[in-house]
Amino acid sequence: MIRSIELTNFKCFERQEVVLRPFTLLAGLNSSGKSTIMQALLLLRQSYLESLLPNTGLALNGKLAQLGTAKDVLFEEADLDEIGFELKDDLPASLKLRLAYREESDVLALSGIYPAGDIWMTSLFRDEFQYLRAERVGPRTSFGMSDYEVRHHRQIGSSGEFAAHFLSLFGSETVEPLGLRHPRATANTLQSQVEAWMTEISPGVRLNLKRYSDIDLMTFSVAYSLGHQVASSEYRPTNVGFGITYALPIVVSVLSGRPGSLLIIENPEAHLHPRGQVKMGELLCQASAAGIQVLIETHSDHVLNGVRLAVRDRKAAPENVALYHSQWGVGGKSPTLTLLNVDKDGRLPEWPDGFFDEIEKSLDRLLGGE
């Protein structure tokens, strides 16, 4: 599991260490540094996969992140034209990088690299990893297939484009962690468990997957279980809204995850009803208790409440949950990250201004407050 990532002269941060726990949530206003933390991890992974690490440097543009050139990522008030990253894992292992600045280059050349332990065996650099970006694949009449990405590397795709293919190949696998098994699932297989958790988003969901290997395309249709009656007709994803298609890759990623894996998700709440957002927060937090490290960025107080409920219901330990609030201070050169802890009842001993408090502020105004 990754213990921490430290950034030096990278984008909005002059120097910032972020301690990661089994479950870490990043929150704050737009452009307050949340994505920067995730992007640092993604740059390390894509550079390793493109064979630029450990010998050449850091790729700023690739499958996982596209950040432009060196001038786009150097901290604006940097004293030195050098960018640094330090990664620590509990193997124990670590990796320290020093990267030279050349304004128009989109590969940051190494000026120093200091690996320790078996750092390249951490989940960030292995197949035990999934990343789902905010802009995921929406409803389609067909979805892509990739034998290389899915069968050989168990990847769902950063846009969730291979989720249907993944489920068609591995849907009969058993979901091992008891804490991730839905109590109303008909079986412990991946597909049954996915359908049960998807029911929390859209009641009664059943998925029918079809593979067209000769043209490398997948389709799936959605039916609804009507109690003890026969299921409804089947509908295309384009006729059941964005929520199912956007949530499916997340649910598949969590339930197919293995202990020691890493899951990074942007905006898991996208296109979901508030109840579905709460359940998504619960599921993601429960995953961390099953040994899957989870890092999310969210603007949803409902997702936050789902996390808090998981802790209250003893489905996750409070000491394994980290909540970060990122904000710009008056006159500050970099955003400030505040670590918030939850207690065993899911409560926050402190609640800083701007941390998911807009509902209270709006209600206060509506009720006649200042």
Provide a descriptive summary of the structure in words.
By secondary structure, the protein is of the alpha/beta class. The protein folds into two domains: 241 residues, Rossmann fold; 119 residues, no CATH class. Helices cover 26% and strands 26% of the residues. It contains nine helices and 15 strands. Helix 4 packs across helix 6. The longest helix has 16 residues. The protein starts with a strand and ends with a helix.
Descriptors:
6-stranded antiparallel beta sheet; 370 residues; Rossmann fold; 6-stranded mixed beta sheet; alpha/beta; 2 domains; 26% helix
SSE sequence, one letter per element? EEEHEHEEEEEHHHEEHEHEHEEH
Taken as a percent bin, the fraction of beta residues is 25-35%
- The low-confidence parts are none
Q: What's the CATH topology label of the largest domain?
A: Rossmann fold
Number of domains: 2
The CATH class assignment of the largest domain is Alpha Beta
How would you characterize the largest beta sheet? 6 strands, antiparallel
Could you write a compact summary of the structure shown?
The protein has helices spanning 34-49, 70-73, 147-152, 163-170, 190-198, 242-256, 274-289, 301-312, 358-366; strands at 2-10, 13-19, 23-28, 57-59, 82-89, 93-100, 107-116, 129-132, 143-144, 205-212, 217-224, 262-266, 293-297, 321-327, 336-340. By secondary structure, the chain is of the alpha/beta class.
Outline the secondary-structure elements:
Layout: E1 2-10, E2 13-19, E3 23-28, H1 34-49, E4 57-59, H2 70-73, E5 82-89, E6 93-100, E7 107-116, E8 129-132, E9 143-144, H3 147-152, H4 163-170, H5 190-198, E10 205-212, E11 217-224, H6 242-256, E12 262-266, H7 274-289, E13 293-297, H8 301-312, E14 321-327, E15 336-340, H9 358-366
Parallel strand pairs: 3-13, 3-14, 8-12, 12-13
Antiparallel strand pairs: 1-2, 1-5, 4-7, 5-6, 6-7, 9-11, 10-11, 14-15
Helix pairs in contact: 4-6, 5-6, 7-8
